[in-house]
Amino acid sequence: MKKSVTPLAAKLVTFETTLSFKNVMTRLDLALNKTGSAHFIPQFKAAKTKEEIDALIKGITGDRAFLYFLEMNHNKWMDIYDPSSTHPAAAVYTIGNPLIAQEILLHDIRAGYNIPPRIMILEKAHETGTAVIYHLPSSVMVLTDDPRLKAAAESLDAKLEEMITEVVSD
Q1: Domain tally for the chain?
Q2: Fewer C-beta within 10 Å: the chain N or C terminus?
Q3: Residue 127: pLDDT band by 50, 70, 90 thresholds?
């Protein structure tokens, strides 16, 4: 048996807005085509060719960069464990695009540990706005000095920031 530990300098990105949690969630759902993404996973699993995968993804994303995979609403289950408190709305979305992911995974399959990326949408105290939080993809996916891997991950950084900026802008 051999054990190794690879240090990571993960960077946490936080965008804050005065927009309500509900408004940010609505905008995010539209940006991700959440409704259109509903059957993506079973269709993706059933695909047999690159062309089928490409057509499926492009059919859902259109001119968007990402699609929706999964949602966890932490406040809902925390309310069950601690009904004496009101917990701020807190959702974690798993999002992505396999066409972007494959560009990264071609250079280092270990980046797949952090693919697809996740984003947290968090209601600020006293409903004064919303924060959107995520790990900067290049800070958790680039484990080598491969410039192609770095470029692909930094491209993902830019696409994610562009989408989040659009969602949280007043």
Answers
A1: 1
A2: N
A3: confident
